[in-house]
Amino acid sequence: xxxxxxxxxxxxxxxxxxxxxxxxxxxxxxxxxxxxxxxxxxxxxxxxxxxxxxxxxxxxxxxxxxxxxxxxxxxxxxxxxxxxxxxxxxxxxxxxxxxxxxxxxxxxxxxxxxxxxxxxxxxxxxxxxxxxxxxxxxxxxxxxxxxxxxxxxxxxxxxxxxxxxxxxxxxxxxxxxxxxxxxxxxxxxxxxxxxxxxxxxxxxxxxxxxxxxxxxxxxxxxxxxxxxxxxxxxxxxxxxxxxxxx
Length: 246
Known about the structure:
Blueprint: H1 2-5, E1 15-21, E2 24-32, E3 41-48, H2 57-68, E4 73-75, E5 78-79, H3 85-91, E6 95-105, E7 115-116, H4 123-134, H5 139-143, H6 145-150, E8 160-163, E9 168-176, E10 181-189, H7 193-210, E11 214-219, H8 224-228, E12 232-241
Parallel strand pairs: 3-4, 10-11
Antiparallel strand pairs: 1-2, 2-3, 5-12, 6-11, 6-12, 7-8, 8-9, 9-10
């Protein structure tokens, strides 16, 4: 969590509001400051301890951080089947920005050979070029992509899959806890469907090699390349933004 809330380029901490009952933490809400070149700051939470819910604490935490920042805001992904979350943000004046598809797959051995970030020189230039070409990033922000990715505690160069002939890539993040493990397909940057699907298949092979339990993907794009690679749609999420000039 620390690596995802702290800015990779500047080291700036999040804007954080906490609620306490005596010495007990009962809730928190945070805003991850935008990196140089980012348009919006990212809202995390609010999270409220179950015994303190239904008393307006979440709205007070949310309003506290909204009042404390000047940047346009966007939420993290909110599952559409999470009871009350959409109602909470809509009732607080937020509007839907994006619909995101969530997919799951099963790790599978085999597939085409994998080229990873550990195999090439000039990786920052490769990723920056991909960011400009496939993600439409401005040059200065694209140049900071790899440092931002490396700052995530889940990042590993062996899980950044590349297709050098086309300059394409797939960013995978492996995470484990005491009860589960997964490989998250976080980004797929390619203009050709065949290349995208080949990279997704390679990610499943990487998951098998890392002995994780499942492969998960989240995408704002048409999920056809994922379903064609054997993944299944398991849910949808929404992101919300606070409208108006800030």
